[in-house]
Design goal:
The chain is of the alpha/beta class and 123 residues long. The protein has one domain: Alpha-Beta Complex (Conserved hypothetical protein from pyrococcus furiosus pfu- 392566-001, ParB domain), CATH 3.90.1530. The chain contains four helices and five strands; from the N terminus they run αββαββαβα. A hairpin with a 6-residue loop joins strand 3 and strand 4.
Length: 123
């Protein structure tokens, strides 16, 4: 990874200007997982805790979501349900195509399922 990651500022993009990126390494999502994630976002006041990583889209003013596709799908579901506006403001980090794809790969490879309950975890 390059040092440009830390210097990138957050940009705000309307939800309806975000498109699924073919460069996102995760190709499938479970319906149940997206519904659960939407419930989590709803429960936290319609905020996502980790910004989406985007790159400029093919059309002016549009962006591809390269990392954070599940979060994007959950926000789309909330918009379809009428819980948030279709132009809901989404915090994103803009990257080059290569950097965004690298982040997508890292996010998905480093993911590990939690085992046991929180009470069984020790710090």
């Amino acid at each position: 990874m390059t040092d440009t990651y830390a210097a990138t500022e957050t940009i705000i993009v309307a939800l309806n200007k975000l498109d699924r990126d073919p460069l996102n390494v995760r190709k499938t999502y479970s319906k149940e997982g997206i519904e659960e994630l939407a419930a989590t976002i709803r429960g936290d006041g319609y905020r996502i805790l980790q910004n989406l990583v985007v790159r400029k889209g093919d059309k002016r003013g549009r962006f591809f979501v390269t990392a954070g596709g599940r979060r994007h799908a959950a926000l789309d579901l909330l918009a379809e349900l009428g819980e948030i506006a279709k132009d809901f403001a989404v915090e994103c980090k803009e990257r080059s195509a290569a950097e965004a794809t690298e982040i997508s790969l890292i996010e998905n490879m480093q993911r590990e399922a939690m085992l046991g309950s929180a009470s069984q975890l020790s710090c």
